[in-house]
Amino acid sequence: MPKFGLLHHGLLGTNNGPLYIHPDILHTGYTQNWYAGIQYALTQHTALDVSYIANRGRNLQSAGLSSIQNYPSFSVYQPVLLAGNINSRISNAAQAAAAGVPYPYPGFSGPAYAAIAPFPQVAAFNDKITTYGNPFYGAVSGYDSLIVEFKARSARGLYADFSYDLSKETGNYSTTNGNWGGGTSSYGQNLADWQDSKHWLQSTDQRNLLKGYMTYLLPFGQGRKWFSGIPWSLNEFVSGWELGYYGAYGSGTPIGQVSSSYQLPFFFGKDRAFLAPGQTVYSLKNHFSRKLDLGNLNDPSNTDFNTNAFVATTPQNPFGNTPYLWNHWRWDSQPAQENVSIVKHFGFGPENRYKAVLAAQFFNFFNRHYYNSPDIGMSDKTFGQVTSVSGNRVGQVSARFEW
pTM to 2 decimals? Predict the structure, then answer.
């Protein structure tokens, strides 16, 4: 690696350690977009759209990929680890020899893992090296979606736009320093992971999503289907009411990696756990009863999955086999949401010069509770438990007068 310089974290990202700025940092990546669609008019006021949308990104700059710098090779690292010397303090050549590591340079003082790092003076302070703009660490992204959309315009007072989206999002792009592999909050366990990370799911991958809105002018009052014969004096109170609705219903996003209770000192980060014998990536299921006991987070009713499905890693075998993101084990943090409104428009005076609006709006109309994903850290006391919930109905009433 070329030489690096020290930059304050305020200049780039949130890194407090040394940064290397590659000469190609201003070179942009490449993206390709595809769209194909067809629209069919069902009636004079309604239409159906079917479309395919996709994009591919290459050579994208990603802060997360750059954080794999300044780690020793594992073949050098593991013997020191297994000898129990990885954290031994090294201040002179004799101590280095006793720990089985080289003494990097006169005056060096730090743990043994720093002595075997490519840049010992950086590792001595438990720092990594972050690079920006190096094409070797260019990230990739991919997105494919099939969208079916229904539209209605002035169909007997109905306006609507609903769509169903079947999609998949992959890649290894990250905007957060230290995260790579699609928001895994992990450096990856080794360089082999990075080589394959272009195929990984993104943490925002939501396979199915149905959402849309509609407004409907109620058919009450003069000239409408109902109460068309009422006097003008009552018409202003009966007509002009409009209902509004927005709803979204989706499948879950991938649950993140299950972190082992054993973690390698200064070697990438957040080592994944092993699947227990007999378990597969298809066998994990959510069993949460949706009866959360916040007074006792370890209450059995808070349990989401069988914690015995996982086994911790060891110094002898530190690289787990559980996924960084689980395609077949997902969590619906907000499986459904609905917002509802009712609005009344008034017009009076010469040529309706004066106008007024009454409105009532409700967010999370059905007062749904949204449970956060379970704890997936093996070393946590609440491992396997759902520990928090959010969501409540909010409403407001307003009046407006215009002249």
Answer: 0.79
